[in-house]
Amino acid sequence: MKWRTSLLIAALGLSQFCSFPALNQAQAQGKPAPAAKKAPAGQMITVLNPLGTPPPIKLKTMAPRLDTLDGKTIYIVDDGFVGGDNLLLEIQDWFKANCPKTTTVFKRKGGGGFDVPDKALWAEIQQKASGVIIGMGH
User: Fold this and answer.
1) Does the pLDDT at position 115 exceed 70?
2) Model confidence over 16-58: pLDDT tens digits?
3) Any alpha helices (H) in 19-57, and if so which ranges?
4) Which of 3, 11, 63, 87 is found 20 to 30 A from 97 (Cα to Cα)?
5) What count of other Cβ atoms lies within 10 Å of the Cβ of residue 74?
């Protein structure tokens, strides 16, 4: 165990001398460290910020909470993310066991990606649902 610790300390110490050969050579010769290269005089470079500027956030109010779930219809919507349906079906089973007076309807959203609306499903939800649980991937 002691030899492993000694070997680790030696390797760390050796890495200090080997990691910057140009700097270590200059120091060994008593010269200052080499400076970073500069652009030729009169030449300008443009640097862009890769983060960009995000659009402002538009706040929306939350939907009012239901006073009770008894007698209500809750739609449980899967957006198609792999494995998301497993969790949502477990949520549906929980409602069956813990809220027997609540009706749950499991639906899978059509239309491709999450950003593509499923107009038929949203129309059905507006007409029939008291509340919605939407499972969105991570």
Assistant:
1) yes
2) 555 555 555 555 566 666 666 676 777 888 888 788 788 899 9
3) 21-28
4) 63
5) 20
Residues 91-107 have pLDDT tens digits of 999 999 999 999 999 99
CA distances from 58 to 54, 55, 62, 110 (A): 12, 9, 13, 26
Residues in the chain: 138
* CA separation for the pair 100, 71 (Å, rounded): 9
Supply 117's token pair.
């609306």
Q: Which residues contact 129 (CB under 8 A, 6 or more apart)?
A: 73, 74, 75, 105
Handedness of CA 136, 108, 133, 95 (dihedral sign): negative
Q: Which residues are CB-contacts of 107 (< 8 A; sequence separation ≥ 6)?
A: 75, 76, 77, 78, 121, 124
Whether residue 74 contacts residue 132, with contact meaning beta carbons closer than 8 Å, is answered with yes
